[in-house]
Amino acid sequence: MKNKLLPIISVVIISIVLWGSIALSEDYICGINAPVELSDLPQQYAPFFLSGESVYVRLKGKGWELAKICMGGEHKFYVSSPQSKGRHTMNLKNEFENNPWIGSSVSVVEIIPSEIKLRIEDRVTKKAPVEKNFKISFAQGFGLASEVEFIPDSVVVSGPESILKNVESVKTDTIKFENVNESQEGEVDLLLVNGIEYSTDRCKFKFDVEKIIVLEFKDIPVKILNTPPDKELLIFPVKINVILRGGLNKLGRLSKEDIKVFADYRDALGDDEEMLVPRIIIPKYTELVGAVPSKLKYIIRER
């Protein structure tokens, strides 16, 4: 049985090869989308495309030739760059010789669009900070205990002045973190804007997530501010307790010296209650729950 199958299989394979050879020797038409790229653009200039940045090229040729082009990877349509600033209209039918991938053995049936409009501007380069575009929800009892850190934390961007003047930051792709109960790290893509070149298109990130607790810091001294030379502001008590909410490790590393409490003379002016609300400055990624006492008694007297 095997001896009978082998000749049959051989005939089938040879028939397929012959059919393919005959078929690919016929003329066909195929279409290719290709991004436009300027060649020989002076380094001090950058293009701003007023029309589309890609073209659709319909080619006619033998099947073998078209197959080689289509399977040859992504193609770019190169256009000779203007050498001066200002608006320019480029006839793409004059640019076929700059694209050797088209080849002399195929013909161009049409190119859409047949021309592109662009403006050549001065190139601007600057650093832009990375801006997070994260949506984070935490498991019950957990919360953010640090900055979201990016490596690198800024990106060098380069492009036309008219675009770069509006670029204040580079946003990350949107990532959703749900029910988070531990620190996170990884990589994220950056959202790229057409016409701008970037020193990198990805960055690393990390942020700390901790169990949230409430902790009281006792006997924080109250510092008096903005008292005139001829006045004296007396307060009672001179120390208060401050209650903070934050990450377990974050609060565990804090001391009362990390918390600042102030009584401002200007806050006492015009206050008929003779009670002053202290100003409290706390570390980042902590939350003020309250202070004991929440108000201070005070007296203003002449020196």
TrEMBL record:
InterPro entries: c-di-AMP_regulator (IPR053154), YbbR (IPR012505)
Coiled coil: none
Pfam families per the UniProt record, alphabetical: YbbR
Origin superkingdom: Bacteria
Organism: Melioribacter roseus (strain DSM 23840 / JCM 17771 / VKM B-2668 / P3M-2)
PANTHER family: CDAA REGULATORY PROTEIN CDAR (PTHR37804)
Protein name in the entry: YbbR family protein
